[in-house]
Amino acid sequence: MTWYSGPPVPNSFADTLQMTPVTDYVLPYTSVGSLVPGYGQFPSIYTLYVYPRSSVSVYVSHVNPLGTGPDLTPIYRLSWRCGDSAKVICDNPGAPGYNPFHISHLYAAGDTEKANALATGYKLDGIEGYVFPKSYGSAPQSGMVRLCRLYDSTRDEEILFPGTGGSGNKCYPPFPSYTVGAAGGSYYSSTIYSTDWMGWVYANYNGATPPTVNLTSPVNNATFSAGSNISLTATASGSGVNNVKWYANGIQIASDNTSPYSKTWSSVPAGTYTVYAVANTGSELSATSAPANITVGSAPPVLGNNGFETPSVGSGPSAYVYGPTGASWIFTPAGGSGGSGVSGNGSNFTIGNLNAPYGQQVGFIQGATTISQTVNFAGAGSYHLTTYAAQRSSNQNGIAMTVNVLVDGISAGAMTPYDPYYQYQLNSSSAFSVTAGSHTITLQGVNPNGYDLTVFFDNVLITSP
Fold first, then answer.
1. Sign of dihedral through CA atoms 326, 329, 333, 334?
2. What residues pair up with 42 in beta bridges, in sequence order?
3. At a CB cut-off of 8 Å and minimum separation 6, what does 117 contact?
4. How far apart are CA 463 and CA 357, in angstroms?
5. What is the pTM of this model?
6. Are 88 and 97 in contact, with CB atoms under 8 Å apart?
7. What CA–CA distances, in Å, run from 74 to 20, 119, 121, 132, 192?
8. Which residues are within 8 A (CB) of 429 and not within 5 positions of it... i.e. 6 or more apart?
9. What are the tens digits of pLDDT across the range 399-437?
């Protein structure tokens, strides 16, 4: 499409967009900083419902200030706008968050990440600064923290924040209200280029000091009977702590304003939960604890071959197979409308995508085909199906394929994986209820236009509630 050349938010939007009112667009934009001409806007902080809790200090040169050791890593800021390349949010009027004036921004650590972003159509704004590289296994100077980033697939934006925890998926965000994404409200588990942090920085909390918090009950991997009353306890320290809140699967379940921090979560229904505590201060600083994963009642069933590691197909251009048998799933053999099966890394299917997020292989659905599996549920209840999924990077014609989730042939919602780098993001079905016994789970590709569209899947799980 052609980029509108008028003001950033023109009064003529309604005419330009065939009488679609401005309020239908979910991302108002404001000018921030010096960017590529025509790209100088960011979603309003008020639109995102999140206030900045801190800033970070970075270096102005690549020279290591310690006098020895590796060069510092550049942090690049890049921008993209509708019309630069095909993107669902811009080109499909029925897509979630559709906005033909959308602008996206991201941050890349180092030249390889920058090159990958440029290859997808982003424009380079410049270097935000330099940070100590990740090759330092621990903070290279006292007081340093990890610089973490989170990609919000709903808004197609990245945020940066000073994180805690180890490498991998342990950058606990200081504001769990922003743990959004395809799964909605899930505990933070975003990865970009197989990592979620970019280097070491000094955090600046505007003269304040963030609190610390530890979840002491429940403990990780605890199990309870359905309907149990579960004790919630936490310890918190720091100046100005005024309450502790507990969350389960991203939803607040309790709050206590006085120490010792303790509440009861009553009559908890059967399911699997990720529980964590958040300590808040009067200065709007907060801290998030490490999570505890607990099971209440009958555990959800485990899908066989949920990572599609069987049959082993190796890696390389020919590392894929349609319709394999004896692999727990029922796949669709190759035909005129496509097919489903298993692919290794670097195959003719996956060559443009990042490697499988779990193991070495992924499942795929090409076109309007299916994969299915019958599993036994030990107890009646409400469940979700979750999976890490990605669109194929090639042959998509600028279109993202949707996959319907069916339980015994009845819809349990749909998933449309989306990421500007074709990375794997966590997706979730709607809640579905079943009785105890055997039920068939089906993933069904939706391809009304007949294009050669493909979605990849990994780590397919049944969770509850």
1. negative
2. 30
3. 76, 78, 106, 108, 421
4. 19
5. 0.61
6. no
7. 41, 18, 20, 9, 16
8. 384, 385, 386, 405, 412, 413, 415
9. 889 999 999 999 999 998 877 777 788 888 998 999 999
